[in-house]
Design a protein that fits this description.
The protein folds into four domains: about 150 residues, ph1033 like fold (Roll), CATH 3.10.590; about 120 residues, no CATH class; about 100 residues, Roll (CBS-domain), CATH 3.10.580; about 120 residues, no CATH class. About 40% of the residues lie in helices and about 15% in strands. Helix 16 runs parallel beside helix 21. It starts with 7 loop residues before the first strand and ends with a helix. About 5% of the residues have low confidence.
């Protein structure tokens, strides 16, 4: 069968890149899973699941299912001719073309047995040559995953040919011209109220020169909007960075028909249903709530909460639901009415219970109550429910289903958020240990802020910023014995200090790989100059 199109994948070389050199030298993709044998004859997902469960009997259903999906992709879904990206420890990226089926190398060392042959096309792409949205997509903690968004396959192909990343095919070229708030205000004023300015939250934040919605930036933007009578719908604090908002003159007087800009927007047929629904909801709020744009970790901040899940409708057959669940590997499906509102959930458990009571049970009998969160709910309030049930459905302002959050979504989201904290913590630990080992305590005390020296008993009592002051002193720097440039190191340390300070301010938006680069580079340098720490 002829394949419809090339696909692009990421296959990591171990959690810390431990298989990286072998992959590049041997021209292969490598995955670990040391307890598993040859999977070449395991042709189904269920077969791989059984092998994983047998090899790792102490793991729960979620982990077994997650690993099964990655291995199935590696063994069966990745095809010869597909492109593959390998992120490197050097903070560069390699791109290759798959040219062989899955192999199991019996004689190879553990961790080097599950392979796919690959022709490496380029092995030294600078991450700065890759635009932030594609870098974000590469940031998953999974070992094997597809790059399926934003025209990724075509963009990876361009990178493999030495060309620059062409960017998203749907990139808003006009939004790129809104380089400062004044231009945004002028554009909103210039437009007809019936043709509001719409752009992604990512592009909206870029107008103010920020990438994440931390409190200081949000307060600055809110003040600027309020001073000019503007409003974003939905609030720019809700949704993912790729969600769309409309910017309009919320405080403008009514038009000749006696309606506000917000009311007209809710009835517009030219905008997405999500924006129309949000406009309608904003129009119904009391005025003391209408401009509330609190930064919080909302349900809508998860990408899956804004992606319509597959479903069945009231009146469909149970066979239809079961067929979809088997084809897609789902554990449950929402059951919706004709207006898109939730009427319940059908799952393998509910089907089993219904058919125990009546072998001829239909969809209605097998439908049970489903867990449903509002897009604007605090996500933290739903974590317990998601852990217990495995999912929660998401409804929009009109109470229509608009997304589905699973335990897997939470694992990826919070794993991504923990990563920068772990990185900064290792940097601090390494600095503390090398300073304590090489520099006398009296000189460490001298780096503390005035009046705080008496409280310093070791480097652990120093603030992060104090390390810069400490290591500026030639005597202290010489004590380290490092054969590296002091000025470049101190500049990197200052970049990391600013990154750390920004990290400590809450933001619902994840830190991208691009934003992690300064801290990652400093950590790699510390590991190189002082590997014993």
């Amino acid at each position: 069968m002829e394949r419809s199109s090339m696909r692009a994948w990421v296959v990591r070389a171990g959690e810390n890149g431990e298989r990286e050199q072998a992959a590049l030298d041997d021209g292969v993709l490598l995955v670990g899973w040391l307890g598993l044998g040859d999977l070449a004859r395991t042709t189904t997902r269920d077969g791989i699941r059984a092998s994983v469960a047998a090899a790792y009997p102490d793991e729960g259903p979620y982990t077994v299912g997650n690993w099964t999906g990655q291995l199935y992709r590696f063994v069966h879904e990745i095809q010869p001719g597909d492109l593959v990206v390998l992120p490197l420890k050097s903070l560069r990226v390699a791109v290759g073309r798959v040219d062989g089926d899955y192999e199991y190398r019996t004689a190879a060392a553990h961790g080097m047995r599950h392979v796919r042959r690959v022709e490496w096309l380029v092995t030294d792409i600078d991450r700065q040559e890759i635009q932030s949205d594609l870098l974000d997509s590469m940031g998953s903690l999974l070992t094997v995953f597809e790059l399926g968004r934003f025209g990724a396959a075509e963009r990876v192909a361009a990178l493999s040919e030495g060309k620059p990343d062409p960017g998203r095919p749907d990139a808003d070229e006009f939004a790129a011209t809104l380089t400062e708030p004044a231009k945004l205000y002028e554009e909103v004023r210039r437009r007809s109220p019936d043709e509001p300015l719409t752009l992604s939250i990512r592009d909206f934040l870029a107008v103010w020169g920020v990438q994440r919605r931390h409190p200081a930036a949000t307060e600055q933007i809110k003040s600027g909007l309020e001073a000019r009578g503007l409003v974003t719908i939905p609030p720019f604090t809700e949704g993912t960075l790729d969600s769309q908002v409309a910017v309009l003159a919320g405080g403008a007087e009514p038009d000749e028909s006696g309606t506000s800009a917000v009311t007209r927007l809710s009835g517009s047929s030219d905008l997405s249903a999500a924006v129309q629904s949000a406009a309608h909801a904003v129009g119904q709020l009391p005025d003391e709530e209408a401009d509330v744009q609190t930064v919080a970790y909302r349900v809508s901040n998860l990408e899956s909460a804004n992606r319509m899940p597959e479903s069945v409708q009231v009146g469909d057959s149970l066979g239809t639901a079961m067929t979809i669940m088997v084809l897609r590997g789902y554990g449950q499906l929402p059951v919706l009415d004709a207006d898109g509102r939730l009427r319940g959930v059908v799952s393998w458990e509910s089907i089993g219970r219904a058919r125990m009571a009546d072998p001829g049970a239909d969809l209605q009998t097998a439908t049970v109550r489903g867990q449903e969160a509002d897009r604007s709910d605090d996500l933290l309030d739903w974590i317990g429910t998601i852990q217990q049930s495995g999912y929660v459905l998401v409804r929009d302002h009109d109470h229509k289903v608009c997304g589905l959050i699973t335990a897997s979504d939470l694992t990826v989201q919070f794993g991504t958020r923990v990563r920068p904290f772990v990185l900064v913590e290792e940097i601090e630990q390494r600095l503390r240990r090398v300073v304590d080992r090489c520099i006398p305590l009296d000189r460490i005390k001298a780096a503390a802020p005035r009046g705080r020296a008496a409280q310093v008993n070791s480097a652990a009592n120093l603030t992060f910023g104090a390390y810069g002051h400490l290591l500026k002193t030639p005597q202290n720097w010489a004590a380290l014995g490092w054969a590296i440039d002091q000025q470049h190191f101190l500049a990197a340390l200052e970049d990391c200090r600013r990154f750390r300070n920004d990290l400590m301010h809450f933001s619902p938006d994840p830190v991208t790989d691009d934003q992690l680069l300064p801290a990652q580079g400093l950590l790699e340098l510390l590991r190189s100059v002082d590997p014993q720490v």
